[in-house]
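Technical annex, item 7. During the second reporting period the consortium partners agreed on a shared format for inverse folding records so that results from different sites could be compared directly. Each record opens with the tokenized structure and is followed by the designed sequence. A conforming record, contributed by the partner at site C, is shown below for reference.
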């Protein structure tokens, strides 16, 4: 405690840690002094934008949910409200059975509600289409505990809907596998139906019908890319931001906490009244091992997927026809290295129309071998994808490869119970909280929400003391 100001240290300078710093500043005011420690040379984590052919393009997350307020509200609060932009189009396709096919209307995370739309899409075979309506006559699939997405969807709608609709959508978010991912954690609305409804088709129709019709765009971004958000949040937080500082140890002190940073021969000790751990599950587990071993053990079991994003910038004439949709997803069953492609300059018109900028995502869980190739090979894979699927001719005018090792936490079966156990184990430690993508959602709004909760917990304890 410095005078009347409590010192709160946040470990991790991604958007979760920075949002926690901002919330501490907004609510705590002069009562707290905040320090953010980030091990890498820059803040922002997976929010980062750099130029490709002179155009500022996100290298990580390129959109956030607009219908969930936390992300937009934070952007507005830190002075970026006028920079919020809506997509020019969100119409997307799935590459299935040798062609790009429009996403059927009325689906919920790939679960169809309209058989006519599903048939029109051509995504699945005639035999697969005939299997889907059996959902309405089959006995109920009783779901009493958490199960994998694959187990439930396959039982209700058959293998093809799972493989060619649900799997690519889940892969686009988690880079994971439906036979491992938790139904409760990744598809909560469908999970509710699994507990209460016999027919998944009928339940999905109800979900679609109940959705607000005038809710506005689903996604939003920033004119300078989402990579511009971390710096604005950091500045508005008033926190001391230190990069290139890795926390090696976290332990109880006589009054609060003791953090050890720096090299083993020359350690630096930082004293704090409270600590928020806002790093991925594995480093969080290492830090919590001594003081919250039960939380550490649970976090150590959270798996992560690695991926790479290859960004290509083409002259418009390289495409036989200018793309009209925002991009497409590729089911794993197609056995292609690229799992998704986003036509960034089509989706986000503010990037301009002088170039067609494409982001190709490579890598799912179990495909780490793809990422062992060097950058030039990954660029070649992405170029081959554009030639094969879009008929592109010629070379891109610029390219960029961004590797995200261990970037996406896998919400596998039992994830929600695991998170509850982590939080219960952390809650008994005064002045300690956790936040980040490993808990309640991968998107920016979910991360900001966990940050707000962590900040509120710490401030509540400091005020009580």
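Designed sequence (site C submission):
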């Amino acid at each position: 405690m410095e005078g009347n100001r409590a010192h709160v240290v946040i470990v991790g300078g991604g958007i979760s840690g920075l949002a926690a710093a901002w919330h501490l500043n907004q609510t705590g005011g002069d009562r707290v002094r905040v320090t953010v420690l980030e091990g890498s040379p820059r803040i922002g984590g997976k929010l980062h934008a750099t130029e490709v052919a002179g155009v500022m393009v996100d290298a990580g997350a390129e959109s956030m949910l607009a219908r969930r307020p936390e992300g937009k509200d934070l952007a507005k609060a830190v002075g970026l409200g006028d920079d919020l932009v809506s997509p020019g189009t969100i119409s997307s396709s799935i590459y299935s059975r040798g062609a790009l096919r429009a996403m059927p209307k009325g689906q919920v995370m790939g679960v169809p509600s309209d058989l006519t739309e599903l048939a029109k899409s051509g995504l699945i075979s005639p035999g697969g289409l005939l299997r889907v309506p059996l959902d309405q006559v089959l006995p109920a699939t009783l779901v009493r505990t958490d199960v994998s997405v694959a187990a439930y969807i396959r039982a209700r709608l058959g293998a093809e809907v799972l493989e060619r609709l649900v799997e690519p959508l889940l892969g686009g978010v988690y880079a994971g596998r439906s036979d491992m991912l938790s139904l409760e954690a990744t598809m909560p609305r469908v999970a509710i139906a699994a507990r209460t409804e016999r027919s998944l088709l009928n339940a999905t129709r109800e979900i679609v019908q109940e959705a607000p019709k005038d809710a506005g765009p689903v996604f939003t971004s920033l004119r300078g890319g989402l990579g511009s958000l971390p710096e604005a949040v950091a500045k508005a937080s008033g926190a001391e931001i230190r990069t290139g500082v890795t926390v090696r140890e976290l332990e109880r002190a006589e009054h609060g906490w003791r953090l050890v940073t720096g090299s083993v021969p020359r350690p630096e000790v930082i004293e704090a009244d409270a600590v928020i751990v806002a790093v991925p599950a594995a480093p969080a587990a290492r830090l919590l091992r001594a003081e919250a071993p039960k939380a550490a053990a649970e976090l150590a079991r959270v798996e992560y997927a690695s991926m790479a994003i290859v960004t290509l910038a083409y002259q418009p004439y390289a495409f036989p026809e200018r793309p009209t949709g925002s991009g497409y997803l590729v089911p794993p069953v197609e056995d292609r290295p690229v799992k998704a492609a986003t036509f960034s300059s089509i989706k986000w018109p503010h990037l301009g129309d002088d170039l067609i900028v494409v982001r190709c995502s490579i890598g799912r869980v179990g495909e780490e071998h793809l990422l062992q190739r060097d950058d030039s090979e990954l660029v070649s894979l992405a170029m081959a994808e554009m030639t094969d699927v879009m008929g592109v001719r010629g070379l891109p005018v610029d390219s960029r490869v961004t590797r995200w090792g261990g970037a996406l936490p896998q919400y596998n079966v039992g994830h929600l119970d695991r998170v509850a156990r982590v939080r219960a184990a952390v809650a008994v430690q005064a002045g300690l909280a956790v936040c980040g993508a490993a808990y309640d959602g991968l998107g920016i709004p979910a991360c900001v929400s966990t940050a707000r909760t962590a900040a509120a917990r710490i401030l509540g304890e400091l005020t009580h003391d």
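The mean pLDDT is 94. The chain is about 35% helix and 25% strand. All partners now use this format for quarterly exchanges.
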